[in-house]
Amino acid sequence: MTSARADRLVGRSVARREDPRLLSGRGRFVDDIELPGMLHAQFVRSTVAHGTITEIDLTGVRQVPGVVAAFTADDLELGDITARLGRPLSEFVPTAMPVLARDRVRYVGEPVAVVIARDPYLAEDGLEAARVTYAPLPPITCEEQALAPDAPRVHAEAAENTLVDVGLFATEGIDEIFDQAPCVVHVDVRTGRQNALPLETRGAVAQWDAREEQLVLHTCTQTPHQVRTVAARCLRLDERAVRVIVPDMGGGFGLKCVVGREEIAAAAAALRLGRPVKWIEDRKDALSASFLAREQHYTARAAFDADGRILGLDTDVVCDMGAYSCYPFTAGIEPLMASAEMPGVYKVPAYRVRGRAIATNKAPTAPYRGVSRPQYVMAMERLMERAARELRLDPVEIRRRNVITDFPYTGVNNITYDPGSYLESLDLCERALREAGWYDRQTAARAEGRHIGIGFSCFSERTGYGSAAFAQRKMEVVPGFDLAEVRMDTSGAVTVTTGTISHGQSHETTMAQIVADALGLDFTKVKLHQGDTDRITYGWGTFASRSIAIGGSAVRLAAGRLGDKLRAIAAAEWGIPPEETELDRGRVRRRDDPDTALTYEHLADTAYLKSHLLPKDIDPGLTATAVFDVHNDGTFSNATHGVVVELHEGTGQVEILAYFCVEDCGVAVNPQVVEGQCRGGIAQGISGALFEQITYDAQGEPSATSFMDYKVPTAHEIPEVVIHHLETPCAFTETGAKGAGEGGTIGAPAAVLNAVNDALRPTGVELDNTPITPETVHRALTPRTPEQTP
Amino acid sequence: MTSARADRLVGRSVARREDPRLLSGRGRFVDDIELPGMLHAQFVRSTVAHGTITEIDLTGVRQVPGVVAAFTADDLELGDITARLGRPLSEFVPTAMPVLARDRVRYVGEPVAVVIARDPYLAEDGLEAARVTYAPLPPITCEEQALAPDAPRVHAEAAENTLVDVGLFATEGIDEIFDQAPCVVHVDVRTGRQNALPLETRGAVAQWDAREEQLVLHTCTQTPHQVRTVAARCLRLDERAVRVIVPDMGGGFGLKCVVGREEIAAAAAALRLGRPVKWIEDRKDALSASFLAREQHYTARAAFDADGRILGLDTDVVCDMGAYSCYPFTAGIEPLMASAEMPGVYKVPAYRVRGRAIATNKAPTAPYRGVSRPQYVMAMERLMERAARELRLDPVEIRRRNVITDFPYTGVNNITYDPGSYLESLDLCERALREAGWYDRQTAARAEGRHIGIGFSCFSERTGYGSAAFAQRKMEVVPGFDLAEVRMDTSGAVTVTTGTISHGQSHETTMAQIVADALGLDFTKVKLHQGDTDRITYGWGTFASRSIAIGGSAVRLAAGRLGDKLRAIAAAEWGIPPEETELDRGRVRRRDDPDTALTYEHLADTAYLKSHLLPKDIDPGLTATAVFDVHNDGTFSNATHGVVVELHEGTGQVEILAYFCVEDCGVAVNPQVVEGQCRGGIAQGISGALFEQITYDAQGEPSATSFMDYKVPTAHEIPEVVIHHLETPCAFTETGAKGAGEGGTIGAPAAVLNAVNDALRPTGVELDNTPITPETVHRALTPRTPEQTP
Description:
Two copies of one chain form a homodimer.
Chain A: H1 18-23, E1 39-45, E2 51-57, H2 59-63, E3 67-72, H3 73-76, E4 81-82, E5 96-97, E6 104-105, E7 111-117, H4 120-128, E8 131-136, H5 143-147, E9 162-166, H6 174-180, E10 183-191, E11 194-195, E12 203-209, E13 214-219, H7 224-235, E14 242-245, H8 261-273, E15 277-280, H9 283-289, E16 292-293, E17 296-304, E18 310-322, H10 333-341, E19 351-359, H11 373-391, H12 395-402, E20 409-410, E21 416-417, H13 422-435, H14 438-447, E22 451-463, H15 467-471, E23 482-488, E24 494-498, H16 507-519, E25 526-529, H17 547-574, E26 581-584, E27 587-590, E28 593-599, H18 600-609, E29 623-628, E30 635-647, E31 654-664, H19 671-690, E32 721-726, H20 743-760, H21 774-781
Parallel strand pairs in A: 1-15, 13-14, 18-19, 24-25, 31-32
Antiparallel strand pairs in A: 1-7, 2-6, 2-8, 3-7, 4-5, 9-19, 10-17, 11-16, 12-13, 12-15, 17-18, 20-21, 22-30, 23-24, 23-29, 26-27, 27-28, 30-31
Helix pairs in contact in A: 7-8, 11-12, 11-20, 16-17, 19-20
């Protein structure tokens, strides 16, 4: 592949192709889909956290005017959604998640029956007429209850509530290292249970297409082919009899990369009734009954030498998975990722870890943006801060002494890190803060009694997980490869079809940039098609920051092959070797005579409409496909975040005064898009650090089921983020890009927490948990009177 | 590819997959498509055959309640539909067919304006309010007018009304051969102008999909990708911005293999209005303003030796193309096919031919089932009959002495015929009639004064035209190759996607048979997808009996490749060479240990979901594609038809007493389907011979615009057809199949005409033209009184 163009698009902040559509109301989301005769589904949901169902009486439901049908698990006879591990792992117990609860309920909000009515409001009326009787069982609502001896079990098929127990790494002699270390610090970090909170809640429109003998399931998912697999299994259909179509999506963040129960139930109802069925989740259900995330508990210690160099790391992590293992990312994924990757950007010579996932009577979890990384980075960065204090080192300096600088670096966790800018990003971030005057302002503010703090976080993020990396996770399915097809039509316009699926990540823009460059073609001549399981053999979808690294590489390879074919056809017409041609602005040129060129339209005309003129070894048509996979440990994006906060005494408010992000995702295909990812992720990370949390009371009732109780930031709470780019190209992706989707979310909580602790330094209080509520800050800033002392 | 199955499906009359859907009302035809906000189009059509448009006043139309818009050519500014030849051919004059008439109209029914309304009836109301003024020009309504010196020209850009004049073959010394031949016979054969008359008229639903930036055009066409090309050009869009989807179709017969004007106009209106537009042709428009066919005139002579062996053939053929050359099959196709292929099944040592297409002020023509073959076979078979009479030879015997028996045979026309059963089919057909007692019954009936006749026709049909054969036709586009994709999903079910498009030919059944055999897979696990330009790179569609020969070969190749991949994956798992495995009933077996097998589900699971277990040289996924083309002169199906008629004196009715067809289309993938094609084709051929005709009066007004005037047979007029199969497998298609779509239509008119002439033998009258009307027969059977003698 050769392109003579100097005006390459990759690396430029080309304006988003998606925006004209989305900004002018021409987007099409699931809820925009209207089909003749369409019915609407709502779900009768469990009102108890744990119990056996003694009776479901839907007689009254079926009498509500406008209600067309109501189904229980027994009515629909569906297969269960069961996430398994691909290889036997004695520490993991697979647990079945029925589409509708059968016999037993395990969390408040669990779907028990589906009501189908003429409109969604009548369906809600139907819900009120449902009579479900439960025999309550004691709910498990926290780690302590779950792990208690003789605790009631969430799943009868498991001997205990711990469903995954991994102890991946344990360096020999680690106890001696800790015993002899000059400095050992401890942290106990807990992170709150959150909802990933995409702007668009979940939803589906299911329709049986009698002509195609296919269930057409429009749904907002990050993994259309996985939904197809599960829907086909639950509905007992061949996979080809299910077509999943994903229209525009208002965010996913991992919540939509596991398969939901409601879309399967809606599909089953559509099959039963022979009419289209729409289900749109409301915010109450989204908060209480979709998939939650983040609740983890790290009990960690780290050993340092006197110079602040890490000698060892010893961690116990417990992930509260809620009631079920979700498909395909079993409960195993969170403890496995935390265990494997916690050393992060630091050189850790000795490591011990135990990772567990426990079942509780709470809504199940999905791998929310960053997965375990926001949490283990928080634990790790707290350890660094604590050691810095202990050793009276500057927080930046202690990091500087520990970050990996020689690449590729194979860690104690057996993971090989490809080159990154760990030290450079740290230095640049500190310099940026310093040059912006924040250190001086902090000093001045403190003198005035104001509580200003500066905090950092350093992290790298494994992206572009290929099948090799996923295979280590022992999942039932092993994502990794992805596919792309690049097709030029007879008019010389190009359609790119991918297995990845953009739900805010601007793939319509970035994939077109990659193809336009590869083919020397006008950007507007390239159109992306995604999100239709019938249109591409397979796709693993978009999660784990894999789309540009893996999907984009497949696109680049396929475009390259198409370019080669164009050159071969032109070369044959000229009777010269293809090497003597080049692609240039919609033409193939002769290198020896650049004024002689054949347009793509001309070559396409030959390839399709005059195929008898093609040489025998060139197939007609202009379609090229490519598969790309990563056969090593993946590629590591990295960043340093630096944040300045001020704590307000009266309110306990944490105000973010400044936010700096120095990120390196290799080649940024579209820097503006990368910045959008950073800013959005940072907003979510800040929100997790300061605002969002769903707690459960002793009965297992969730605390926050609306935006009245579930606090999310507005533009007011999110600061302007100053972003600096570094570029350490990836050596093995086709574009040099690494993943950029999750970084912001990973770095923000730790940086904010560290900044708050820095601000609190004069008080002596240290906080290790998120969210950092105003109450906590207020309490920390308020000198205790004697009677308040315990 | 190896399959151990003894129970092969190819060759068996498997029940049609299409029938449960179609018989239970679950088919989806264009008119079944309902979209929110859909509008309806009707066309203001020319009331004069030839004239200039002096004024179009749509003011009144726009005031009709329910009318939303009305557009003329000037309003829509569309590109023209222009069929060109791919290589310069001085004898052909390309003529532009505007989507809506501009300035000039050239036939009664030509679309002049489109009216868009809330429903189709209101749109019809709108038509009545249109005021179009014409300055009439003298219409050209027949060959004699068209070819007259100083005839008015239908197209100003052409110097005369002859738009194609080909004289492909002229053997040296042919005049001497005729001069010296012991027997020279002449015929003057004219065939009536017909409509192909699919049960479903034409129609389209056009919608602009703002999200995909695509015009989605549901239309009933045999050539979806060709419609895409033309629509994109006329609408000035990239081709990828047009998606053509073909739902179920109620027949096409060639009428739907050219691009219509109305679907483009409907699409343009949908673009303009931003709302879906439906157009459904009514029968009046179908008969008068769609595409007609068949009207040809052969002035031919043949020279024979005393033993009845052909010495030479000399033909002039004039094809009345009507007002326009249609895309992509220009006016050239009819005279070119007739000229090239007229010698047919006979050994013709010397040949001269002149083929012309003339423009007239009649509705344009499309290549109706059989294209020129029903006509040239009629001319050729009339020559054989006449020579038999002249030489007092039995009509079967004279054919027996002339049919090609040594294959491959390269004719005087430079076409190489692959093996067929020309002689065997003739012998078998005659024997079948004789054994059924028809010769005896004819003798007995004649003795009673009844008019029973026996007639035969022998023909071969070039099918599986590859690009090599089409390239000879010098068309702008050169059909030939076709594509197939065979994809197995993770459940082991298979989807086949083809570029051909079944519109009654049972591809859902036959393609599945081919794939099921190739993969050793249950027939019900295979589903065909067709008719969506976005779903396959390209497809030439279904015409010229190409689908099974070419499309089926591509399907077989692709399925074979998929089977090879399954074997390779299994072999890798076992660590043995792929050659030591075989496919058997949904499993790959070890040859050395047939009890050891891996199911397709297991292998699919590896190929998709555990791709890390695949060997490095095997790509993930289970999709295989193949291209197939024919690089020689094609493969020739053949048949002999034998028919027994009785003429009824009082009414002039031609009653068909018996019909025998001995056909050889190579391997019949599904004999019942082949028989369906034969029976349907024979019905159409009989209808052309006896019933259907659209004449034009001197003003160019068509005679038949409804079923009141356009006579079509019912079940009563169509006899039971006795079909015998012979099987001469094609050596170069992947299944051994030849095309079977057109044969019935080709053989019937000549056989019926010969039988009628045989019945008329006692009267001395000979008929050479079709349709053979009751008036003609009545006149022939009624002894002329002296005053009736001219």
